[in-house]
Amino acid sequence: MSDHPxxxxxxxxxWAMVEDKFSPYAKExxxxxxxxxxxxxxxxxxxxxxxxxxxxxxRWKTVIPIIxxxxxxxxxxxxxxxxxxxxxxxxxxxxxxxxxxxVMAEILGRGGHFAPQAVxxxxxxxxxxxxxxxxxxxxxxxxxxIPLLNGEIRSAFAMTEKHVASSDATNxxxxxxREGDVIVINGHKWWISGAGDPRxxxxxxxxxxxxxxxxxxxxxxxxxxxxxxxxxKIIRPMKVFGYDDAPEGHCEIIYDNVRVPVSNxxxxxxxxxxxxxxxxxxxxxxxxxxxIGAAQNALxxxxxxxxxxxxxxxxxxxxxHGTVVADIAKSRAEIEGARLLVLSAALQIDxxxxxxxxxxxxxxxxxxxSMALEVIDRAMQSFGAEGLSQDQELASAWAGLRTxxxxxxxxxxxxxxxxLKELKRAPALVQKNLEIKKKQALLMEKAGVxxxx
Length: 453
Description:
This protein has 453 residues and is α+β, with helices and mostly antiparallel strands. The chain is 51% helix and 13% strand. The protein has 14 helices and seven strands. The strands form two sheets. It has a four-stranded antiparallel β-sheet, with no helix packed on it. A hairpin with a 2-residue loop joins strand 2 and strand 3. It is globular. The relative contact order is 0.09. The mean pLDDT is 95.
């Protein structure tokens, strides 16, 4: 195993398992990313929070200066759009596999939501860029994808609706109606991440364009809606356990007779479901990758807390009390197991694309966030009341991760899909067992013995 700086950030065992799958370019890029995290991003996080005003009149109009400075430096260092693999997007991607990016995303996950922004790897832009790179036409790519790739603008993906169970995309009610060369949009969305950002210039809106289609999966389409189009009304930012995640936010939006040209339709009428499935696969695993980093960061924070002489109680270090040592061991083991799930899913995406890796992605999607929440909860407990406050990043990290058990499909949906996929194996298992029993019977007869079971 090489002497790579990543072993100080992740497990030696997991690195030994994947190192031979990393290109020289990926290893060098990973080393540069780690140095950038240590020298620039992590020291800048508190500054970024301080540069975001509390005043709501300016809070949602602010572009955080130090993040923009980091973006300039990241570009110069070649640490840009790391999520977009050239293998899948030859024209726009970088020469990194999903497996290679998985390790990098874990590193970025230690820097909250600011670190991915610094290298242009933030949701929802990552998923939107993949949609535009894969499905958009040349004119749409020039107008929206290139500025997104350059980090000049941001975007939103408008799918979730207030008055229906949006985990079933066939329930979507927002209407897309064609009038000549125009598409008219009417609908009520909420939890639209990124829409509050002053740099957000385009919404990718999922709506129902053909409600009479016999196939429930061909009734939806996606259109590109410039954020400043008349009729786009941002009602309010939603809060997650009191956090507003400004300036990006998660907004409630009404599209009131919004009119855009037919040329803003992505891929074609009735292609919305196909697009969202292609979009959500990679996005789900990106969240899981970063969640591993958030969990590892929480464990590291906990280790420092419980060994701090200034925090002794009753003459003992905190780790000498109760189940603290056991909690540390559980967190270590759970992170290791979840990391292997994520690396396995990333490798499958590289081999058979996201559609062929749905089982692995689904398992990671319902296992990893729950794991990270448990790890962070243990870390918060070690801090007492301080762990729940704004003086530590643990509470906000927990709140953000809790949303992942709902975002991009709730746990129950992924569990159901994985379980049903497993059940499909049953007939083959029964048949195989019958064949084994036949061979067993022949051997018993030949040996002249009777089974005791």
